[in-house]
Amino acid sequence: MHLTIPENYDPKLSRRETQAAIRFIRETFQDEFGQQMNLSRVSAPMFVDHAMGLNDNLNGVESPVSFTMADFDGHTIEIVHSLAKWKRMALAKNDFELHEGLYTNMNAIRKDEDLDNFHSIYVDQWDWEKVIAKSERTEATLKQTVKTIFKVIKHMEHEVWYQYPQAVHQLPDAVHFVTTQELADRWPAKTPKERENAITQELGCVFLMQIGGLLKSGQRHDGRAPDYDDWTLNGDLLFWYAPLNCSLELSSMSIRVDEAAMQRQLKAAHAENRVSLPFHQALLNGQLPYTIGGGIGQSRLCLLLLGKAHVGEVQTSIWPQTMIDQCETAGIQLL
């Protein structure tokens, strides 16, 4: 557990006003986001069958919450970490056409999360996925998608200002593109997190690309599951967050693996045994569309736009009593 307490913190809004602002941000953002990205809202599962290989393996060390069912003997059911692979199968199953896509309100439990101002064991995000052509599996497609999402977020800043001018947190006017190797070349002595802090403080908002593969040093900037993100065509959307003097990751997105990229990355991750799972077989057999997709943190967007000091101010979760006590003393209003 790690908690940063900002000096002289003022939440600006009461708990009740904050709840109203959360509803306004979520409803307004998802409607505009869906319209701008040509996405339809769909229902999505809270849990999946382990045997299908659909759960997000994250960095490969986090274990999902799991249980068994009386009427599904012999199967392990898992609470989702995210819907990265499920969405691609849903696009195929529901006959989405080229440049059409879906989004859903994803609710997950990540019980191994290290708790701090931004991290909770409860994850709520807009998970989205969109069909593209194989020829569009390019950096240009990725960057244009990032710019569209950034534009929607900036518009939300203005919408929140109209409703809550005393509380809105001002965002930078542009997003910049940087690779993990460029950061490592510039700051070889810094840790990956220190590099993210340095570049976002300098530029305001950065889309940090190419996460998951090895850098020239033989180290990774960060881990990524090998069977959905293409490590050469992915990235995280990071904002410099002055209230806590650090970078804030709002979104992770990627052009998804094709057949060759998945096999290459599974080998690099020593996870080639996954190829027999239904999702992986469907991809290798050409039964799934080529896609781009990602997730946008709902609570984190509310935190960012309202200038909050703790994600617990914009979502209800479970926190250690020591953290609750520290927040109360500092005027941080956990819900």
TrEMBL record:
Q: In which pathway does it act?
A: Amino-acid biosynthesis; L-asparagine biosynthesis; L-asparagine from L-aspartate (ammonia route): step 1/1
Q: Where is the Aminoacyl-transfer RNA synthetases class-II family profile domain?
A: 23-320
Location, primary (coarse class): cytoplasm
What Gene3D superfamilies does UniProt report for this protein, alphabetically? Bira Bifunctional Protein, Domain 2
Q: Which SUPFAM superfamilies match?
A: Class II aaRS and biotin synthetases
| Lineage: superkingdom | Bacteria
Q: Name one GO biological process term.
A: L-asparagine biosynthetic process
Catalytic activity reads: L-aspartate + NH4(+) + ATP = L-asparagine + AMP + diphosphate + H(+)
Q: Which GO terms describe its molecular function?
A: aspartate-ammonia ligase activity; ATP binding; catalytic activity, acting on a protein; transferase activity
Give the main EC class: ligase
> One Pfam family, short name please?
AsnA
**Entry EC no(s):** 6.3.1.1
User: What subcellular locations does the record give?
Assistant: Cytoplasm
CC per GO annotation: cytosol
Going by the UniProt record, its keywords in alphabetical order are: Amino-acid biosynthesis, Asparagine biosynthesis, ATP-binding, Cytoplasm, Ligase, Nucleotide-binding
HAMAP family of this UniProt entry? AsnA
Its family remark reads:
Belongs to the class-II aminoacyl-tRNA synthetase family. AsnA subfamily.
Name the chain's protein. Aspartate--ammonia ligase
Which organism does this sequence originate in? Latilactobacillus fuchuensis
